[in-house]
Amino acid sequence: MEEAKETPNFRQRVWEIVEAAKPGDKASRIFDLFMFTLIVLNVTAVIAGSVKSVEEAYGSQLRWFEDFSVAIFTIEYLLRLWSCVCHPEFARPITGRLRFALRPMQIIDLLAILPFYLEFLVLDMRFVRVFRLFRLLRLAKLSRYSKTSQMLARVFTSRKEELLITASVMAVMLILASSFIYFAENEAQPDKFPDIPSAMWWAIVTLTTVGYGDVYPVTTLGKFLAAAIAVLGVGMFALPAGILGASFVEEIERQKVGKQCCPHCGEELD
């Protein structure tokens, strides 16, 4: 009977620790700092391991650190999955855990450790090497332990509709720019602008004002279109910057006056 009473309390405490630290919860704060540090070191190790000289000199140490990290991340993932039923939203043992596992952050957690286990299940190493890129998704886990990243997520969430509209307009502009430059330049440069999909490379670098110079218009109409598209590109990229900038100011003001926002929808909480 005593074990039956202690188990829910222990599970609740595990849930409190593995979730983002609350004010005054020292154990949860220490856990967050440990995971934050481990993730940063992991991403650093993945980047350093891509350097041939580093891999040759410290390959065994990097692999040992990878094994240690995967063990910690796996335990963390299982603890979250085990203790999530303490939250009312995931109270049901099976469907609740399934719903919890399908949340974006949990999917990222799974993809971050999946490449390690695939090496034991898949014989085609080319397939495994592709999946190893998912190890860099550990960087996305930082948002769970960083207040700054959480604020950034709230900013994007609160302005998702405006950003979606801006992205839609930019997609339309990309298609129109690619189509116009194709019809203007196809005859003069069939090798550079053979079709509209190929022209999209030029449209992207022009709209973003990068302009690599490997493909450029030579006709009068093409040059006129390129100038107009470049100017429009500057204005289009200023739109999301302005939206996000205003949202950051609002979020900072909310924090100053002590208002809290829902981490899922970005709306103010009463």
What does this structure look like?
The protein has 270 residues and is mainly α. It has two domains: 2-145, Voltage-gated potassium channels. Chain C (Four Helix Bundle (Hemerythrin (Met), subunit A)); 160-257, Helix Hairpins (Orthogonal Bundle), CATH 1.10.287. It has eleven helices and no strands. The chain has helices at residues 2-18, 26-49, 52-83, 95-101, 104-121, 125-132, 142-145, 147-158, 160-185, 196-207, 220-257. α3 crosses α5, α5 packs antiparallel against α6 and α8 (147-158) packs across α11 (220-257).
CATH overall fold name of the largest domain: Four Helix Bundle (Hemerythrin (Met), subunit A)
Q: Helicity level, as a percent range?
A: over 70%
Detail the poorly predicted runs. 1-7
Instruction: Indicate the radius of gyration in whole angstroms.
Output: 25 Å
CATH superfamily of the largest domain: Voltage-gated potassium channels. Chain C
Q: What portion of residues belong to β-strands?
A: under 5%
The first-level CATH class name of the largest domain? Mainly Alpha
Helix and strand topology:
Elements: H1 2-18, H2 26-49, H3 52-83, H4 95-101, H5 104-121, H6 125-132, H7 142-145, H8 147-158, H9 160-185, H10 196-207, H11 220-257
Helix pairs in contact: 1-3, 2-3, 3-5, 5-6, 8-11, 9-10, 9-11
